Amino acid sequence: MNTILKVVDVEKYYGTKSNLKKALDHIQFNVDAGEFVSIMGPSGSGKTTLLNCISTIDMVSDGHIYLNERDLATLLPKEMASFRRKNLGFIFQDFNLLDTLSIEENIALPLAIKNTPAKETHRIVTSLMQRLGIDDIATKFPSQVSGGQKQRCACARAFVNRPKLILADEPTGALDSVSAKQLLELLTELNAQEKATILMVTHDPFSASYGNRVLFLKDGHFNKELQKKQMSRNEFYHSILLEVSTFGGEEPC
């Protein structure tokens, strides 16, 4: 199996020598092409810090992160924006759509940035909107559609460049239960049919159960991993719930 993401002995510190906080403590894991991996942990466990380091928004203090065999620490500042566009897709809790652009224009934005011809852009975006069931709102603006439709738009925008890795940061956090389930089923479908590689941070055991594997982060390091293997999603969900209960009663987030 081709490894897309390799995180090797990563540490991350914040603060000064007199007040140093260790956010990530010797983190090490791989994500193979086509995997759907969930990361869970209590508040302050380091999930957001880890995602920020993988996305090149932040840099590690020690260790290495390799994306498609490129060491992120070797990226020059002028290379980072281009590297993100080519290799990463992002799905955020708050959608991060541009209010002045239509749904179709929001999805097309990554293609416009890399000067994809208009005819090809229209073909790609139209096909993706149909696939995600939002072609009927193509000309509407984000303020005119529901939260679930906004997140489908954000999902389409993340996939439009066919990136090596999709980073999803609490993608269901702002959705009602029906919209959240629809989005998770959509991500599962894209993972299975398009072989999309997804790394999702979530506080929600139900959301995490849609992954093939769950990594539990506590105090800046992984202390448990669960694999779905032959379990049904419902069985996997209950295994995750059992593991979450070992966090000492603290609400995972």
Kindly describe this structure:
- There is one protein chain.
- With 253 residues, the chain is α/β, with parallel strands linked by helices.
- The chain has a domain at 3-95 and 167-247: Rossmann fold (3-Layer(aba) Sandwich).
- Helix content is 36%, strand content 27%.
- It has eight helices and ten strands.
- It has helices at residues 47-54, 77-87, 103-113, 118-132, 147-159, 177-194, 205-208, 233-244; strands at 3-16, 19-32, 36-40, 62-67, 70-71, 88-92, 165-169, 198-201, 213-218, 221-227.
- The strands form two sheets. The chain has a six-stranded mixed sheet, sandwiched between helices.
- A hairpin with a 2-residue loop joins strand 9 and strand 10 (221-227).
- Helix 3 (103-113) packs across helix 4 and helix 3 packs parallel to helix 5.
- The longest helix has 18 residues, at 177-194.
- The protein is globular and about 50 Å long.
- The two termini are 31 Å apart.
